[in-house]
Amino acid sequence: MALANFFDRAATAASQVLAGFGTAAFSERLRAQVVGLAFDGEAARSQEGAALLDLTVRLLARLYPILMIHALDGNAAERVAELSGLARAINPAIDLGSDVGRASVTVCVGRTALAIPGRALFAGSDGWIARFSPTAPVGCGPSANPFGAGGAACIAAANVFRAVFADQIPGGGLDGEIALDLRDYRPAAPGAAGCEVGPVDLGEAHLVGLGAIGNGAVWALARLPALTGTLHLVDHEAVDLSNLQRYAMAVQTDVERAKVEVAASVLARPGLRVAPHRATWAEYLAARDDWRLDRVAVALDTARDRVAVQGALPRWIVNAWTQEGDLGVSRHGFANGKPCLSCLYLPAGAVKDEDDRIAEELGMPEAQPEVRRMLQTSEPVTEVFVERIAAALGVPPNPLRPFAGQPLRSFYQHALCGGVVFQLTDGRRPVGATVPMAFQSALAGIMLAADLVKHARGEPDEPTVATRINLLKRLGTHLADPHARDTTGRCICGDADFRAAFEAKYSSAHRSAG
User: Fold this and answer.
1) Are 309 and 207 in contact (CB under 8 A)?
2) Do residues 432 and 14 lie in contact, with contact meaning Cβ atoms separated by under 8 Å?
3) Residues 121, 135: Cα–Cα separation, whole Å
4) pLDDT score for 85
5) Which residues in 41-74 are b (16+ Cβ under 10 Å) and which e?
């Protein structure tokens, strides 16, 4: 039994949500922890149950080194081997078994009650509705709708985390009874049916960003049986080992593959044209003749990148995020009187330039001019520079030497963001960027896909722009965030020229002429 080979990244994410964090204590607790997953034949046979089990394993196997997968009856037994194989594909060193009696906490899927010494958490779904209970089985519906099942898997994984680390999560605690309808992000009425999704024609849609949130969206879209149209995938990066900490669809064999190719292989099916573009958003637009963009789903990391997408003036945007305190999704037109995507990301004050921020995180603010030059020219990091960084950070240089010769931005992403320095300092020097837990990113991606699908089906937009959920606390009763449109005059949606360009781009006359 061993922690995953991307453990440093998992520890970095946990350090940002656990009080009194220390890497050694965190790893010791994980090694001592046995987590269970139990399910009956009904769950194993149903599409919703299969989806819930699949994502639950994808989330649990990224963090916990001991996982017990237990079939509650003979009809479920064949699913154990499949789920065990998936867990090993994520963490080849994982310790697998079937004795949930050893588990301190077990996720139970299906309608069968389970008597075990540890804590049982019950997850299920009914179409669009994600269900969770700390006390009794909730079952899985018969539909092919993945959204309720995916939401339930994320909620269950979050509750496992809160159970395991209860003493380090201020204001945490386990959820009570949940029936969350992902059609409107409100509690489902008693007796409400979740329903199928039905046929979905995306028309021409874009998914921009195939990171952790994008992976969650791909997981959901890949499970829709009647998805048609064209889906452009835009991302310029390859899968890195550290990404496995939270990329729901990534396994060990995906490391160094282009993210868009991984996603395209998962989404391939008759009726859906998947177009992978290994490029930045700017590079993709530069190569595209037609800038009429009907639907764009945004799963990017930075405010700057999101503003750049809005600057291309898509007809409609759905955006998802994770950040300290919450995750969520927002929906945006442009000339409809509501906030555009840029309105949500206008800076409220001074923002540090990248070179200033990286120089500070390297422990060498005085080297900012040098850092700026290296970032602009992609100059490789020398061994002498590595030694300077190690001295400034108070860590031995040898663990950083393998990254010498890489451009500074790559060195920063691997040595700092990848968790090497974090591990060397026992978590005392956190990275600057927020690193979400896997269940947070996955739920944000599922919500992104859900809103994209609802819009493609012609369902009306939510009356509020944004929906926010905090998976580190009990589910709130009010998840809507009205968010006001920018009134300072700084945003492009208040600019007459941008508004005229938007209207001209999507007018019927312009479309007919195109």
Assistant:
1) no
2) no
3) 7
4) 97
5) bbbbebbbbbbbbbbbbbbbbbbbbbbbbbbbee
Any residues with CB less than 8 A from the CB of 137 and at least 6 apart, and which?
108, 110, 111, 112, 113, 122, 124
pLDDT at 510: 47
The DSSP result for 98-150, as a single string, is --GGG-SEEEEESS-----SSEEEEEEEETTEEEEESSS---B-SS---HHHH
Q: Is 95 exposed, middle or buried (0-12, 13-18, 19+ CB in 10 A)?
A: middle
Residue 416: the pLDDT is 78
**Residues of the chain under the 50 pLDDT cut:** 509-514
> Cβ(509)–Cβ(290) under 8 Å?
no
Beta partners for residue 121, in sequence order: 107
Residue among 383, 341, 391 nearest 366 (CA) = 391
The rounded Cα 37 to chain-centroid distance in angstroms is: 22
Spatial contact of 258 and 482, defined as CB atoms under 8 Å apart: no
Compute CA 442 distance to the chain's CA centroid, rounded to the nearest angstrom: 4
For position 470, what pLDDT does the model report?
95
Q: Which of 181, 205, 177, 204 is nearest to 192 (CA)?
A: 181
Helices marked H in 1-136 — which ranges? 7-15, 23-32, 41-45, 47-60, 77-90
The kind and range of the H/E element at 18 are: none
| Ordered DSSP codes for 493-509 | GG-HHHHHHHHHHHSHH
pLDDT at 513: 38
Q: Is the CB of residue 416 less than 8 Å from the CB of residue 362?
A: yes
Length of the chain: 514
Q: Give the angle 379-382-387 at the CA atoms, nearest 5°.
A: 135
Pick from 249, 161, 166, 184: nearest CA to 212: 249
Helices (H), 170-231: 212-221
| Other residues' Cβ atoms within 10 Å of the Cβ of residue 195 | 16
Residue 357 carries which side chain, given as an amino acid letter? R
Phi/psi of residue 291, nearest 5 degrees:
-95, 15
Spatial CA neighbour of 251 closest among 4, 514, 503, 1: 4
The contacts of residue 84 (CB under 8 Å, 6+ apart) are: 69, 96
Strand partners, 319: 298, 330
Judged on CB neighbours under 10 Å (0-12, 13-18, 19+), 488 is exposed
Dihedral through CA 20, CA 21, CA 23, CA 24, nearest 10? 30
Query: Structure tokens of 63?
Result: 């963090």
